[in-house]
Sequence to fold (852 residues):
Amino acid sequence: MIEKVPPKNLERTVAVIGNPNTGKSTLFTALTGVHSQIGNYPGVTVEKKLGWFEFEGQSIRLVDLPGTYSLSPRTIDEMVSVDVLLGRQPEVGQIDAVVCIVDASNLERNLYVVSQVLDLGLPTLLVLNMWDVAQERGIQINTEELAKRLGMPVIPCEAHRRKQIDLVRSAIVQASHSPKPNPPDIFPELFHEEGRKLQAEFLQFSNQTLPTYLVERLILDVGGQLEMELTKPNPEQLITRLKEARERLKVAQFRVPNIEAKLRYGWSRQILSGAMSVPEKRPAVVTDTLDRWLTHKFWGLLAFCLAMFIVFQSISWAAQPLMKICESGQKQVGEMIGSLLPFGPLRSLVVDGVIAGVGGILVFLPQICFLFLFIALLEDCGYMARAAFLMDKLMTKVGLSGKSFVPLMSSFACAIPGIMATRTIENRRDRMVTILIAPLMSCSARAPVYWLMVAAFFPSISWAGGWITLHGIMLFVMTFFGAIVAVPIAWLLKKTLFKGETPPFVMELPSYKIPSPRIVLHRVFDRASAFVMRAGTLILATSILIWSVSYFPSDHSEEQKVLENIRLTESMLASELEQKEQLSLEREKIGQTPPLDSKAIAEVDEKIAELDTRLQPLHLLFDTRNKISEQLLANSFLGRFGKAIEPVVKPLGWDWRIGVGVLASFPAREVIVATLGTIYSLGGDVDENSQGLQTALQSATWPDGRPVYSIPVAMSIMVFFALCAQCASTLMVIRRETNHWGWGVFTFAYMTTLAYIGAWIAYVVTGWLLAS
Amino acid sequence: MSSVVSQALPLELMSAGEQGVVVEIDGAPELVVRLEEMGLHAGVRVCMVQPGSPCILEINHQRYSMRFDDSVTVLVGLVQ
Fold:
C-alpha cells in the first residue's frame, strides 16, 4: 500500500486530552517546556493552550484540551474540545493524532473518555501517568497486553518527575504519522444504522454533512449542546426525527442516555480484565491520615483558617517590600524621563499619564505573583479540593458550591487573580455568579481609601487598654462590608439571571503530593505575564484618556514657569534639602525609640526649623504651584465636567472635587488619593499617610463656609469605594473570562448603582444617627 | 467476593466505613450521565469514608466529595 506520508519537517498537530487531576498540564509542560502560548477560543470561556517541541527532526504542535471526564458536549464550552478533535476549529486546524493521558491508579474510570476518543478514529496514544502512585497502591498493569487489546501504544510515565518524557515524545511523533485506526465495536450495529439515517436526513435538511461522531452524539446526549445547536435551523423536523430514532432504539433495548455508560464501562472492564490487577484492600496511605484531620468538621476548619491566615499574612509581608521597590522604581523612571524631556504636554503625558498610570498597575505585580504562588502551591499539593469540600456547606446557603470559595477568598487580595481562578468551577452558572460578585470582595486597592478616611474623620477612641480601637473596628467593618453585600447579590443572581438547580456537587479529592517547583513557578509566570500583557494595555489607554481630560484645554505656560523656577531653586538649595532629609530621618528614629530623649528631639526640631526658613522660597513656590494646579484642574474638561455633575453627587454629601476624584478613579480606585491630593492644592505627590492631605480634607469648606467633610461624608465615600467597580483591569478580565463585553458592562452598571445607593444610605443614616 | 446483604438504600444513608455496590442511579438524565462519567455507575463498589453533606466517598481507591440533592438518587446495596 502506498501511503502519502507528508515530508517529515512539516509541522504535525497533536491534541492532549484526559480526566482532570491526571497531571495533564504537568505532562504538557514537561513536553513543551517554555514553548507555549495561552489564548482563548472565540465565543467561549475555554482557554486555548498551544505548545511546541521538536523530536527526531519532526516538529510537533501540541494542543492542550481542558481536563474532562467525557467527550459528550453538554455546553458550548465542552463543544470546543470536540470541535478541535474533529478538525472543525479553524484556529487549530486538522488534528493528526491524540494523546490520552490517564491516571494509572484509576484506569477503569479513565478509559471511559479514551473509548470516546477512539470513536473519533484518530491515531491515539495512551500515557499511563502517575505510574508511581499505582505501584504504591499495589496495582499491576500489563502494558504490553493492554497495548495489544487497545491497538495503540501504551506508555507508563511519571510526568512530575520527568520520567519517560522522551519515550512519550517519540511515541507522539510516531503516532502523528500513523494511519487512521478503526473505532472499537462498543455499540450495536443498530445504533450506527440510526446514526447513518439521521446523517442523511440532516444532509437533506441543511445541506451539510455532519461527521459520524457528531450524529451519534446527537442521538446519545439528550438535551445536550448539539441538540440545541443543530436542531435550530429546522427544529420541528429534526427533533421529530431524533425522537423517532431514540424511540426505535429504546424498543430494541438501547435506552438513551443510560446505555452509553453501561456499554463503555463494560468495554473498559473487558479491556482491563486480566491485564490489570487491583488489590482487594487499598493499602493505607499518607493521604488517608492527612484527610482524617484536614477534612474533619472541627480540626479541618481550624487548619483551613490557619492556612488562609498564613497565606494572607505572607502576601502582605512578602509583597509589601517588593511593592515599595516597584513604586520607587516607577518614581525614578518618571524622574529620569522627566529630566530628559522639556516641560510641556509631552513630558506631562509621559510622566503623569503613562508612567504614573501603567506604573500604578504594575505596582500590584508582586502581590499577584505571591497570590498565584500560594494558589499554585495549594492546588498542586492537593489541598485546594479539601478547602472547597470544607466550604461547600457555607456556600450552598447562597446557592453556590464549595468551588466558588477559593476564587472569592483570592479576591480579597485582588479580584483579577480571583476571577481567573474561577476556571476551576465547571458549572457555568456558578462560575458566572462567582465572577460577578468577586469584585465586591475588598481588594488591597481599597485599603488606602479606608485608611485615609478613617484616620482623618473618626476620633481615635480605644478600649481594653488600647487593644481595640475605633479605627481598627472601622477598617475591619469596611474590609468585610463588600463580602456581606455580596451574599444577597449572589442569591439574587442565582434566583434571576442564573436560575437553575445547583448541580450535585461532585469533586475528586486527589492524593496529596509534594508540589513540583517547576510546575508551580511555570504557572506563576504564565499568570503574571498574562496580567502584565492584557491588563497593562487597557490601563495605558485609560491613563492617557484621564490625563488628557484633566490636562486640556487649560493653558499650562504659567505652571511650567513655576516648575522651571522650582527646579532652579531646588538645585540652588540642594545641600539644604539633603540636610533636611537626613535630619528628618534622624528625628523619626529618635522619636520612635524609647526612652524618648526630649532634649535631642528639641535640638533636631530646631535645626529643621532653621533649615525651613532657608527653604522658604521653595515652599512659597510649591504653594503657588499647587494653587495653579488646582485652578488648572478646575478649568480642565474633567473639572468642568465635575462642576456639571455636582448635582448628581450632592445627595451623597460630596462637592465637585470629590465627584471629580471619584470619576478619575474609575480606571483604578487607588487613584483617588493622588487626585484628591492634586485637587486640595498639594500636588499629585501625596500618599494616604500625608498629614497635609488629612488636614486639607478636614479644613475644606463649601462656598458658604460649612465644612465639606464630616463623618457621614467619609462614610458615604468609603461605602461608595467598597461597592463600586472602579477597576478597569477587573472589567477587562471579566470580559476576557466570560468572553463577552456585556458582562463587564453589567458588572460596572450593577456595582456603580449599588455604590451610589449604598453611599446615599450611608450618608443619610450616619447623619441621622449622629444628630440623634 | 462478598455479596449484597441488604435492600437497596440511598447512598447518603450509608454510615462511615460501610461498603456497597451501586444498584441504580435515578434522576435528571444529564446529571446521571455526569455522575456515571466520573465513575459512579451501576455495578461499581463504593465505600463511605465520611458521611454528611457533602460526604466523602471512595470508588476504586479514588476519593470524591459529593453533595446530593433531590434531583438525583443513588441506590446502593450494602455488602460485607
